[in-house]
Amino acid sequence: MTIISPSILSADMLNLKDQIKQVENGGAEMVHIDVMDGHFVPNITMGPWIVKSLSKVSSLERDVHLMIERPENYIDDFCESGAEIVTIHQEASTHLDRNIAKIKNNGCKAGVSINPATPIEQIKWILTKVDLVLIMSVNPGFGGQKFINYSLDKIKELNKIRYENGLDFFIQVDGGITNSNAFDVVKAGADILVAGSSVFSSELGIEKSVQLLKNASKAANV
Questions:
Q1: How do residues 148-158 score in pLDDT, each as one tens digit?
Q2: Torsion of Cα atoms, 192 then 139 then 49 then 61, to 10°
Q3: Which of 34, 37, 131, 191 is labelled catalytic?
C-alpha cells in the first residue's frame, strides 16, 4: 500500500487545521512538514512549534523533512515537539551516521534525503540504519516545481538495492508529484508520495486530490 504524505508547505496556514482534516478525510496517512533555513535552501519556513501544534489537532503521522544546515543542532527540538519521522539531507550532514543515531535515540524514525543530482552511492553505507530514504525529484526550496524525470531511474536503482540486500526502509519521493505521474513513481518502487501544490492548490479540492493520488497508487500496485 502506498502512503500519501501531503506537504503543508503549500497549505493555507490561516486555515491549516481545516485543511489537515480534509487530507485526513481523503485518506492521507501522514503530513509532511518541510523545514527550511534560508541557507541550505533559498527559503525559510517553519520550526518545531508547527509540529507541536499539529500533534494537538491530528492523528496523522508527523513526517518532518529538515532542509537545513547543521541538522544535529535541531534534531532534539523536533523530536521533542512531536515528530515521528525526521529526515535529514546527506548533503547537509557532515556526520550522517552519528545524526541518524541521534534521531533514533530520540525515539523517532530516521530518514536520509538526497537531492536530484546526488547519486545513490553517497548513502549506500547508511542504508542498513535508516527507516526511510527520501528521493528529491525537484531541487529543494520551493513548492510547485516540475518533476525531474531522471528521478525515476534513481527510484528504480534504490529499489533494486533494497531488494537485492533484503533491506526494509521506505522509499519516499518528494517534488512535482501529481495524479498524472504517481502511477509511474509507484511502479518504480516508491512507498510514500509527498505532494504539496497538487493537493492544496488543486481546483478539485484537497480531499478529492488525495483520493486521486491514492487511486493512481493503487493501480500501480495491482
A1: 999 999 999 99
A2: 0
A3: 34
82 — phi, psi (to 5°)?
A: 120, 10
The three cell numbers locating residue 106: 530520540
In the numeric block, the cell 551516521 is attached to 97
Q: Are 68 and 92 in contact (CB under 8 A)?
A: yes
Pair 84, 54: CB distance under 8 Å: no
131 included as an active-site residue: no
Nearest to 3 by CA among 161, 210, 176: 210
Grid cell, residue 45, equals: 519556513
Is CATH 3.20.20.70 what the domain over 3-221 is classified as, yes or no?
Answer: yes
Residue 23 has pLDDT above 90, yes or no: yes
174 is known as an active-site residue: yes
Q: Other CB atoms closer than 10 Å to residue 143's CB: what's the count?
A: 21
Catalytic residue among 63, 131, 174, 191: 174
| The pLDDT of residue 221 | 83
DSSP 123: G
- Which amino acid type is present at position 13? M
> Looking at residue 200, what is its pLDDT?
96
Q: Does 180 count as an annotated binding residue? A: no
95 is in an annotated binding site: no
Query: What are the structural domain ranges in the chain?
Result: 3-221
Question: Phi then psi for 85, rounded to 5 degrees?
Answer: -130, 130
The pLDDT confidence band at residue 165, using thresholds 50, 70 and 90, is: very high
Say how far apart CA 207 and CA 190 lie, in whole Å. 22
